[in-house]
């Protein structure tokens, strides 16, 4: 998730672009850069300045090498392909063309090989540079305009993009295009803007056009011309996004305050991030799930086939919410790849003199990639001879750097301290790793792999449907937790719903300060049942899976003791649904995939409980987003 900005007008635009990027810094700040066309000397000069780190570094670089000109593009990077470095920073310059991009081009490896075979040289590890080469190639083959060249190039790429392009040969134009990644155009008086998000535009205009997938636009100071690519390219050499129709899109007047706009109208980052989950999952699956082959793209996992076959045991290590994701991961690895697997809290593993070594695959899961205990556990595991695969969200962070291989979640930056979208994208990464291992070890039938992957790519749709019930969840939060001033809450689940019960309890404690316990439902009789009375809400995670009947009995036991049950059940459930006081409904998904949907109402329940109580949702007391001390 990067931020892009663009400007065409009369003003010298360097500082305007940097100010726009400042409003988008929440989207990533690994590096930043500008490309500006300057016509002052008669001959147009395309100047590029890039710097690693936050925008302050770009400010410094621009003081050393100022850029002037009234047409330009800018970028603040959240690394997905290639570590944060100046060479990987945008804009990418090829010939007369400079490109900034937010998104992931799925077929970048194939295209890179094809362009390399044509003699083209690359100076970065990014997928974006491929787009710059393709546009340059179209121009060298006689494309009639920059717009036509971008259109032709986009016919060759598959994936997600919001891009902005300038070319020295067309100094009055910026071309932008969108597919899956966000992009808005700002309409001013004698000037036109584009940006990944509205806050970057608000200082200049409140009239914005929200572009749609397939939109390709030519921005000039006098206005914007939009065409819609009907057939997006499929990436093949003969494909081209040439079937286009002109479209009219009316600007909308935005009346959000700048702070609201940064959260896209949501009250808190946490709520925005909860709602971003379907898209975050799509981004994490993009380019990894190979439906035609019923497999997962091994190039993205980074382990060799021989390494996969040699593994004798998997040990999953993490802290907090990431630890909960590893419990689901353990279940998948055992049931799908049939390798013995265990979960470990990083803070325990690192000091336990654990038996680890050759034949062990340690999977270290971390949103930040910097958690001190997880990092220490990774180093210890490698010192003892284990192979380590990191699953992390921050590219180039310490844990993936210290590991043998890394599989990145593409959730984008998570700002709310309570982890939400990173949890579900970790689930997606763990499931993909289990499927990849299962196929390599021949424990997973191709037909079952295909079925799982097909159902996995449908998950974002089910998540969207679940999130539509946010208002209903808010009412339950008020009625069952806030109005009753609940002090304690119990969360129960079995199988894949057990880590979801743990995660639901953690979310509630950390942001609403209600004491909560997550328990394996089968353990209830071994202690927690003594706590149950009419005051305590008990959240039962009971989707339609092989544990359903057993958990239904647990619900009966709770009701027999006057416990107040809030049940997460499948739409249409009539058994548990009829005995629980309140139900939070999720759509039907494959029984291996229930955690992706059952966690959503629990995140919302905690969010609304906290919001109604008036706590600081995004920065709860005593907590830090990244825990770099043990
Ligand atoms: C809870 C939460 C924490 C983190 C934990 C590990 O909402 O965010 O429990 O999951 O601090 O952090 P990472 O995943 O960055 O290693």
Describe the protein.
This protein has 630 residues and is an alpha/beta fold. The protein has 3 domains: 3-259, Glutamine Phosphoribosylpyrophosphate, subunit 1, domain 1 (4-Layer Sandwich); 269-465, Rossmann fold (3-Layer(aba) Sandwich), CATH 3.40.50.10490; 470-610, Rossmann fold. 37% of the residues lie in helices and 24% in strands. The protein contains 21 helices and 27 strands. Strands 3-2-4-1-10-9-11-15 form an 8-stranded antiparallel sheet, covered by helices on one side. Strand 12 (215-220) and strand 13 form a beta hairpin. Helix 8 runs parallel beside helix 15. The structure holds fructose -6-phosphate.
């Amino acid at each position: 998730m990067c931020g892009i900005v663009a400007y065409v007008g009369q003003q010298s635009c360097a500082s305007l672009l940097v100010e726009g990027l400042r409003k988008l810094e929440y989207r990533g700040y690994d590096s930043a850069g500008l490309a500006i066309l300057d016509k002052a000397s008669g001959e147009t000069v395309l100047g590029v300045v890039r710097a690693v780190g936050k925008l302050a570094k770009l400010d410094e670089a621009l003081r050393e090498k100022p850029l002037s000109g009234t047409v330009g593009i800018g970028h603040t990077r959240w690394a997905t392909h290639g570590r944060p470095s100046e060479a990987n920073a945008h804009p990418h310059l090829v010939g007369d063309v400079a490109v900034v991009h937010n998104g992931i081009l799925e077929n970048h490896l194939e295209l890179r090989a094809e362009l390399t075979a044509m003699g083209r040289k690359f100076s970065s590890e990014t997928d974006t540079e491929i787009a710059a080469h393709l546009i340059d190639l179209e121009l060298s083959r006689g494309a009639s305009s920059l717009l036509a060249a971008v259109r032709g190039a986009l016919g060759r790429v598959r994936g997600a993009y919001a891009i902005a392009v300038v070319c020295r040969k067309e100094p009055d134009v910026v071309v932008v295009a969108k597919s899956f990644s966000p992009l808005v155009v700002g309409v001013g008086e004698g000037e036109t803007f584009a940006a990944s998000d509205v806050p970057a535009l608000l200082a200049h205009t409140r009239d914005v056009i929200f572009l749609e997938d397939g939109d390709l636009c030519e921005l000039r100071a006098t206005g914007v011309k939009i065409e819609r690519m009907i057939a997006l390219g499929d990436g093949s050499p003969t494909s081209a996004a040439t079937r286009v129709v002109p479209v009219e899109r009316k600007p909308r007047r935005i009346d959000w305050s700048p702070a609201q706009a940064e959260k896209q109208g949501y009250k808190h980052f946490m709520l925005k991030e909860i709602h971003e989950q379907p898209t975050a999952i799509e981004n994490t699956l993009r380019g990894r799930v190979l439906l035609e082959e019923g497999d997962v793209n091994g190039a993205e996992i980074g382990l060799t086939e021989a390494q996969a076959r040699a593994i004798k045991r998997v040990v999953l290590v993490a802290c907090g919410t990431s630890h909960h994701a590893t419990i689901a991961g353990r279940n998948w690895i055992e049931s799908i790849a049939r390798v013995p697997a265990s979960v470990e809290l990083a803070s325990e593993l690192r000091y336990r003199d654990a038996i680890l070594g050759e034949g062990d695959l340690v999977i270290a899961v971390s949103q930040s990639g910097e958690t001190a205990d997880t990092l220490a556990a990774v180093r210890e595991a490698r010192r003892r001879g284990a192979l380590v695969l990191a699953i992390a969200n921050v590219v180039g962070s310490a844990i993936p750097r210290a590991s043998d291989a890394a599989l990145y979640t593409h959730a984008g930056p998570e700002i709310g301290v309570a982890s939400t979208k990173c949890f579900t994208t970790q689930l997606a990464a763990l499931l993909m790793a289990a499927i990849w291992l299962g196929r390599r070890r021949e424990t997973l039938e191709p037909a079952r792999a295909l079925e799982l992957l097909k159902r996995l790519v449908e998950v974002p749709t089910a998540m969207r449907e679940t999130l539509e019930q946010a208002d209903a969840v808010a009412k339950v939060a008020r009625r069952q937790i806030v109005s009753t001033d609940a002090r304690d809450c119990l969360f129960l689940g079995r199988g894949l719903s057990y880590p979801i019960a743990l995660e639901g309890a953690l979310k509630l404690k950390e942001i609403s300060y209600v004491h909560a316990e997550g328990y394996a439902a089968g353990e209830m009789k071994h202690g927690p049942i003594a706590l149950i009375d009419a005051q305590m809400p008990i959240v039962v995670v009971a989707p339609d899976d092989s544990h359903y009947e057993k958990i239904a009995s647990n619900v009966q036991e709770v009701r027999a003791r006057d416990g107040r049950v809030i049940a997460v059940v499948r739409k249409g459930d009539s058994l548990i649904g009829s005995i629980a006081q309140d139900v939070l409904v999720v759509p039907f998904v494959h029984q291996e995939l229930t955690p992706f949907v059952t966690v959503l109402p629990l995140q919302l329940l905690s969010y609304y409980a906290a919001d109604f109580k008036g706590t600081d949702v995004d920065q709860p007391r005593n907590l830090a987003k990244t825990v770099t001390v043990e």
